[in-house]
Amino acid sequence: NAGVTQTPKFQVLKTGQSMTLQCAQDMNHEYMSWYRQDPGMGLRLIHYSVGAGITDQGEVPNGYNVSRSTTEDFPLRLLSAAPSQTSVYFCASQGSSYEQYFGPGTRLTVT
Amino acid sequence: ILNVEQSPQSLHVQEGDSTNFTCSFPSSNFYALHWYRWETAKSPEALFVMTLNGDEKKKGRISATLNTKEGYSYLYIKGSQPEDSATYLCAPSLSSNDYKLSFGAGTTVTVRA
Q1: Which residue of A33, A103, B2, B87 pairs with A48 in a disulfide if CB–CB is 3.0 to 4.6 A?
Q2: Per-residue model confidence as pLDDT tens digits over B71-94
Q3: Nearest beta carbon to residue B49 from set A42, A98, A105
Q4: How far apart are CA B18 and CA A108, in angstroms?
Protein backbone atom coordinates (compact mmCIF):
# COMPACT_ATOMS: atom_id res chain seq x y z
CA ASN A 1 0.00 0.00 0.00
CA ALA A 2 1.94 3.03 -1.28
CA GLY A 3 -0.65 5.64 -0.28
CA VAL A 4 -0.37 8.80 -2.40
CA THR A 5 2.53 9.01 -4.81
CA GLN A 6 3.68 12.00 -6.85
CA THR A 7 6.16 12.35 -9.68
CA PRO A 8 8.47 14.03 -10.30
CA LYS A 9 9.90 15.19 -6.94
CA PHE A 10 11.71 18.13 -8.52
CA GLN A 11 11.26 19.93 -11.82
CA VAL A 12 12.71 23.02 -13.45
CA LEU A 13 10.80 24.56 -16.35
CA LYS A 14 11.35 27.55 -18.56
CA THR A 15 8.61 30.12 -18.94
CA GLY A 16 6.08 28.96 -21.51
CA GLN A 17 6.84 25.26 -21.23
CA SER A 18 4.10 22.81 -20.33
CA MET A 19 4.23 19.75 -18.13
CA THR A 20 2.11 17.31 -16.16
CA LEU A 21 2.51 16.54 -12.49
CA GLN A 22 1.46 12.99 -11.77
CA CYS A 23 -0.52 11.87 -8.73
CA ALA A 24 -1.77 8.39 -7.92
CA GLN A 25 -3.37 6.75 -4.89
CA ASP A 26 -4.06 3.10 -4.14
CA MET A 27 -6.58 3.55 -1.33
CA ASN A 28 -9.66 3.66 -3.57
CA HIS A 29 -10.45 7.17 -2.38
CA GLU A 30 -13.07 9.08 -4.33
CA TYR A 31 -11.87 12.55 -3.37
CA MET A 32 -8.55 13.88 -4.65
CA SER A 33 -7.13 17.37 -4.69
CA TRP A 34 -4.14 19.48 -5.64
CA TYR A 35 -2.64 22.18 -3.44
CA ARG A 36 0.21 24.57 -3.83
CA GLN A 37 2.28 25.74 -0.91
CA ASP A 38 3.99 29.11 -0.92
CA PRO A 39 5.92 30.72 1.94
CA GLY A 40 3.66 32.39 4.49
CA MET A 41 0.49 31.33 2.68
CA GLY A 42 -0.20 27.79 3.77
CA LEU A 43 -1.81 25.31 1.40
CA ARG A 44 -4.08 26.68 -1.31
CA LEU A 45 -6.49 24.46 -3.21
CA ILE A 46 -5.97 24.44 -7.00
CA HIS A 47 -8.43 21.80 -8.27
CA TYR A 48 -10.28 18.89 -6.78
CA SER A 49 -12.25 15.84 -7.84
CA VAL A 50 -15.03 13.97 -6.07
CA GLY A 51 -14.77 10.94 -8.34
CA ALA A 52 -13.77 9.70 -11.77
CA GLY A 53 -14.99 12.05 -14.47
CA ILE A 54 -15.78 14.89 -12.03
CA THR A 55 -13.47 17.83 -11.39
CA ASP A 56 -13.92 21.35 -10.11
CA GLN A 57 -11.92 24.47 -9.41
CA GLY A 58 -10.49 25.42 -6.07
CA GLU A 59 -9.12 28.71 -4.84
CA VAL A 60 -6.31 29.25 -7.37
CA PRO A 61 -7.15 27.33 -10.59
CA ASN A 62 -5.81 29.72 -13.24
CA GLY A 63 -3.03 28.26 -15.36
CA TYR A 64 -3.79 24.66 -14.37
CA ASN A 65 -5.91 21.88 -15.83
CA VAL A 66 -6.91 18.55 -14.34
CA SER A 67 -8.71 15.41 -15.43
CA ARG A 68 -9.85 12.31 -13.59
CA SER A 69 -10.24 9.35 -15.92
CA THR A 70 -9.71 6.76 -13.18
CA THR A 71 -10.21 6.63 -9.42
CA GLU A 72 -6.46 6.17 -8.92
CA ASP A 73 -4.97 9.00 -10.98
CA PHE A 74 -5.35 12.77 -10.84
CA PRO A 75 -2.75 14.56 -13.00
CA LEU A 76 -2.22 18.31 -12.86
CA ARG A 77 -1.25 20.05 -16.10
CA LEU A 78 0.55 23.34 -16.39
CA LEU A 79 -0.36 24.68 -19.83
CA SER A 80 2.22 27.47 -20.14
CA ALA A 81 4.45 27.75 -17.10
CA ALA A 82 4.99 31.15 -15.50
CA PRO A 83 7.44 32.18 -12.75
CA SER A 84 4.41 32.76 -10.47
CA GLN A 85 3.82 29.00 -10.58
CA THR A 86 7.10 28.33 -8.81
CA SER A 87 5.89 26.47 -5.74
CA VAL A 88 5.65 23.15 -3.98
CA TYR A 89 2.68 21.11 -5.16
CA PHE A 90 0.92 18.53 -3.03
CA CYS A 91 -1.64 16.00 -4.10
CA ALA A 92 -4.03 14.59 -1.50
CA SER A 93 -6.78 12.01 -1.33
CA GLN A 94 -9.57 11.43 1.15
CA GLY A 95 -11.86 8.55 1.94
CA SER A 96 -14.75 8.41 4.36
CA SER A 97 -12.68 9.16 7.45
CA TYR A 98 -12.40 12.91 6.72
CA GLU A 99 -8.62 12.67 6.88
CA GLN A 100 -6.71 13.80 3.82
CA TYR A 101 -3.60 11.84 2.90
CA PHE A 102 -0.90 13.86 1.24
CA GLY A 103 1.72 12.84 -1.27
CA PRO A 104 5.41 13.73 -0.85
CA GLY A 105 5.17 16.87 -2.96
CA THR A 106 6.71 18.18 -6.18
CA ARG A 107 9.02 21.17 -6.01
CA LEU A 108 8.63 23.16 -9.22
CA THR A 109 10.81 26.06 -10.31
CA VAL A 110 9.91 28.14 -13.35
CA THR A 111 12.70 30.35 -14.69
CA ILE B 1 -12.78 30.22 0.55
CA LEU B 2 -12.84 30.67 4.29
CA ASN B 3 -10.79 33.19 6.25
CA VAL B 4 -8.73 31.06 8.62
CA GLU B 5 -6.24 32.69 10.96
CA GLN B 6 -3.62 30.95 13.04
CA SER B 7 -1.60 32.64 15.74
CA PRO B 8 1.12 33.01 16.51
CA GLN B 9 2.86 32.45 13.18
CA SER B 10 5.80 30.86 14.99
CA LEU B 11 6.95 30.10 18.48
CA HIS B 12 10.02 28.73 20.17
CA VAL B 13 9.62 26.45 23.16
CA GLN B 14 12.16 25.04 25.58
CA GLU B 15 12.15 21.26 25.82
CA GLY B 16 9.82 20.16 28.58
CA ASP B 17 7.69 23.30 28.48
CA SER B 18 4.06 23.27 27.43
CA THR B 19 2.58 25.55 24.81
CA ASN B 20 -0.61 26.29 22.95
CA PHE B 21 -1.74 28.20 19.89
CA THR B 22 -4.94 29.23 18.19
CA CYS B 23 -6.93 28.65 15.04
CA SER B 24 -9.77 31.09 14.28
CA PHE B 25 -12.40 30.44 11.62
CA PRO B 26 -15.87 31.69 10.62
CA SER B 27 -18.40 30.15 12.99
CA SER B 28 -21.27 30.17 10.49
CA ASN B 29 -21.82 27.14 8.21
CA PHE B 30 -19.25 25.15 10.12
CA TYR B 31 -19.07 21.37 9.95
CA ALA B 32 -15.63 20.21 11.11
CA LEU B 33 -12.22 21.50 12.07
CA HIS B 34 -9.12 19.63 10.95
CA TRP B 35 -5.66 19.83 12.48
CA TYR B 36 -2.61 18.68 10.55
CA ARG B 37 1.01 18.33 11.58
CA TRP B 38 3.66 19.11 8.97
CA GLU B 39 7.27 18.26 9.65
CA THR B 40 10.04 19.76 7.54
CA ALA B 41 10.73 17.81 4.33
CA LYS B 42 7.68 15.64 4.91
CA SER B 43 4.00 15.78 3.97
CA PRO B 44 1.19 17.06 6.18
CA GLU B 45 -0.36 14.35 8.36
CA ALA B 46 -3.78 14.45 9.99
CA LEU B 47 -3.88 14.93 13.75
CA PHE B 48 -7.53 15.51 14.62
CA VAL B 49 -10.93 16.03 13.07
CA MET B 50 -13.34 17.77 15.41
CA THR B 51 -17.03 18.45 14.83
CA LEU B 52 -18.83 19.13 18.10
CA ASN B 53 -18.77 22.30 20.17
CA GLY B 54 -16.73 21.61 23.28
CA ASP B 55 -15.08 18.62 21.65
CA GLU B 56 -11.65 17.69 22.91
CA LYS B 57 -9.24 15.33 21.17
CA LYS B 58 -5.96 13.94 22.44
CA LYS B 59 -3.06 12.10 20.84
CA GLY B 60 -0.17 11.50 23.19
CA ARG B 61 1.04 14.86 24.49
CA ILE B 62 -0.97 16.83 21.93
CA SER B 63 -4.57 17.80 22.52
CA ALA B 64 -7.07 20.16 20.95
CA THR B 65 -10.30 21.87 21.96
CA LEU B 66 -13.04 23.33 19.80
CA ASN B 67 -15.46 26.23 20.26
CA THR B 68 -17.79 26.32 17.26
CA LYS B 69 -19.96 29.16 18.59
CA GLU B 70 -17.12 31.65 18.70
CA GLY B 71 -15.08 30.03 15.93
CA TYR B 72 -11.81 28.98 17.45
CA SER B 73 -9.74 25.94 18.35
CA TYR B 74 -6.73 25.61 20.60
CA LEU B 75 -3.99 23.07 20.15
CA TYR B 76 -1.90 22.21 23.20
CA ILE B 77 1.45 20.49 23.44
CA LYS B 78 2.31 19.27 26.91
CA GLY B 79 5.96 18.76 27.85
CA SER B 80 7.29 19.67 24.39
CA GLN B 81 9.96 17.45 22.86
CA PRO B 82 12.25 18.19 19.89
CA GLU B 83 10.21 15.78 17.77
CA ASP B 84 7.21 18.08 18.23
CA SER B 85 8.96 20.67 16.06
CA ALA B 86 6.69 21.11 13.05
CA THR B 87 4.18 23.41 11.45
CA TYR B 88 0.66 22.84 12.69
CA LEU B 89 -2.11 23.62 10.22
CA CYS B 90 -5.82 23.95 10.83
CA ALA B 91 -8.60 23.84 8.26
CA PRO B 92 -12.38 24.07 8.65
CA SER B 93 -14.82 22.28 6.38
CA LEU B 94 -18.39 23.39 5.74
CA SER B 95 -20.36 20.15 5.45
CA SER B 96 -20.02 16.39 5.55
CA ASN B 97 -20.24 16.35 1.75
CA ASP B 98 -17.74 19.17 1.24
CA TYR B 99 -14.22 17.82 1.31
CA LYS B 100 -12.62 21.15 0.35
CA LEU B 101 -10.36 22.46 3.07
CA SER B 102 -9.27 26.08 3.56
CA PHE B 103 -5.98 25.90 5.40
CA GLY B 104 -4.58 28.53 7.68
CA ALA B 105 -0.96 29.61 7.19
CA GLY B 106 0.06 27.51 10.17
CA THR B 107 1.93 27.89 13.44
CA THR B 108 5.55 26.76 13.28
CA VAL B 109 6.76 25.30 16.56
CA THR B 110 10.47 24.92 17.27
CA VAL B 111 11.40 23.00 20.40
CA ARG B 112 14.89 23.73 21.69
CA ALA B 113 16.71 21.00 23.57
Answers
A1: A33
A2: 999 999 999 999 999 999 999 988
A3: A98
A4: 37
